[in-house]
């Protein structure tokens, strides 16, 4: 289960509209809930630039330096990185083989928004499950805007 | 003693610690000390051949160690090592440009058969049916 504040939800969808027809990307910050971390709460998002200037319409990459900065700022605010978001311009809000191949943050949520003709439509969230690169898979997770 | 920041997905292998202090004069020594303290981290950071996995970025303060002396990078007091798995992805390469190009310019030859797309290229079962 992914609980996301309304402001964070609106922000990540708007980001996709602003960068259309290119993919947007960013970080989800908040907390893992409970000792078993069965759910996550997103309190805010941190927008990032897409370094894939060679193919921004169907690829994204976040600069690791941005992650280090965001992680450091998160620690100061007692926040964790609980996931990431990106958009799919004119494409379903479903993970692609590329999304899975490039996913390495187990237990985190990968939120994808479909942006059709410049307008955000569906937003889905997928948790990266598994124990290592050989058995990793995405599982669709219920999302609640709070 | 250098400090190593552990990303959230790996903290279950570092005793739930978000940062670990390990001895080491170089990045290589510090990482070796980390996996010696927390052996379960090793397979997530290294291949079976003992090489750092390509998607694992290691930064010394704000510098990618690949652009320094890699594992031989000498550490100073107060240095922070950050382990940052990469974040990347993207939609199907046969992404429909149909909306922008106009429906009349659909190039169906660029899009795999709907059944093939649904089963092998895109996780959405409805993707093929849309077109």
Tags for this model:
heterodimer; A: 146 residues; alpha/beta; Cytidine Deaminase, domain 2; 8-stranded mixed sheet; 3 helices; 9 strands; globular; B: 131 residues; alpha+beta; Ubiquitin-like (UB roll); 2 domains; 5-stranded mixed sheet; 6 strands; disordered C terminus
What does this structure look like?
- The complex is a heterodimer of chains A (146) and B (131).
- Chain A is α/β, with parallel strands linked by helices and 146 residues long.
- Chain A has a single domain, classed as Cytidine Deaminase, domain 2, CATH 3.40.140.
- Chain A is 22% helix and 42% strand.
- Chain A has helices at 6-19, 64-76, 97-101; strands spanning 2-4, 25-33, 39-48, 60-62, 80-89, 109-116, 119-129, 137-141, 143-145.
- An 8-stranded mixed beta sheet of chain A has the order 8-7-6-5-2-3-1-9.
- Chain A is globular, with a radius of gyration of 14 Å.
- The model of chain A has no long low-confidence stretch (mean pLDDT 94).
- Chain B is 24% helix and 17% strand.
- Chain B has 5 helices and 6 strands; from the N terminus they run ββααββββααα.
- Chain B has a 5-stranded mixed beta sheet, covered by helices on one side.
- In chain B, a hairpin with a 2-residue loop joins β3 and β4.
- Chain B is globular, with a radius of gyration of 22 Å.
- Chain A binds chain B through residues 21, 23, 25, 27, 32, 52, 55, 57-62, 64-65, 67-68, 71, 75, 80-82, 84, 86, 88-99, 101-108, 110, 116-117, 128, 132-133, 138, and chain B through 5, 7-9, 12, 18, 43-44, 53, 55, 57, 59, 62, 64, 82, 84-93, 95-100, 120-124, 126-127, 130.
- β4 (60-62) of chain A pairs antiparallel with β6 (87-89) of chain B, so a sheet runs across the interface.
Note the topology.
The complex is a heterodimer of chains A (146) and B (131).
Chain A: E1 2-4, H1 6-19, E2 25-33, E3 39-48, E4 60-62, H2 64-76, E5 80-89, H3 97-101, E6 109-116, E7 119-129, E8 137-141, E9 143-145
Parallel strand pairs in A: 1-3, 1-9, 5-6
Antiparallel strand pairs in A: 2-3, 2-5, 6-7, 7-8
Chain B: E1 3-5, E2 19-21, H1 27-37, H2 42-45, E3 56-60, E4 63-64, E5 80-85, E6 87-89, H3 98-101, H4 114-121, H5 127-130
Parallel strand pairs in B: 1-5
Antiparallel strand pairs in B: 1-2, 3-4, 3-5
């Amino acid at each position: 289960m992914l609980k996301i504040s309304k402001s964070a939800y609106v922000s990540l969808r708007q980001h996709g509209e602003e960068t259309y027809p290119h993919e947007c990307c960013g970080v989800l910050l908040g907390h893992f809930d409970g000792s078993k971390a069965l759910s996550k709460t997103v309190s805010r998002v941190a927008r990032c630039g897409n370094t894939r200037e060679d193919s921004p319409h169907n690829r994204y990459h976040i600069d690791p330096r941005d992650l280090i900065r965001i992680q450091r700022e998160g620690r100061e605010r007692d926040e964790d990185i609980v996931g990431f978001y990106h958009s799919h311009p004119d494409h379903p809000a479903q993970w692609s083989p590329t999304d899975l191949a490039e996913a390495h943050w187990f237990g985190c949520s990968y939120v994808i928004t479909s942006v059709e003709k410049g307008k955000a439509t569906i937003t889905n969230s997928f948790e990266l499950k598994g124990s290592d690169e050989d058995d990793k898979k995405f599982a669709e997770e219920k999302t609640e805007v709070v | 003693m250098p400090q190593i920041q552990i990303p959230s997905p790996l903290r279950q292998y570092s005793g739930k610690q978000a940062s670990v202090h390990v001895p080491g004069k170089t990045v290589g020594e510090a990482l070796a000390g980390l996996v010696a303290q927390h052996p379960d981290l090793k397979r997530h950071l290294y291949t079976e051949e003992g090489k750092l996995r390509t998607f694992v970025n290691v930064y010394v303060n704000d510098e990618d160690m690949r652009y320094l002396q890699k594992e031989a990078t000498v550490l100073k007091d107060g240095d922070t090592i950050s382990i940052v798995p990469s974040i990347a992805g993207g939609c199907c390469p046969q992404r429909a440009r149909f909306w922008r190009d106009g429906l009349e310019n659909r190039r169906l030859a660029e899009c795999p058969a709907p059944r093939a797309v649904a089963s092998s290229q895109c996780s959405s079962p409805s993707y093929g049916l849309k077109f």
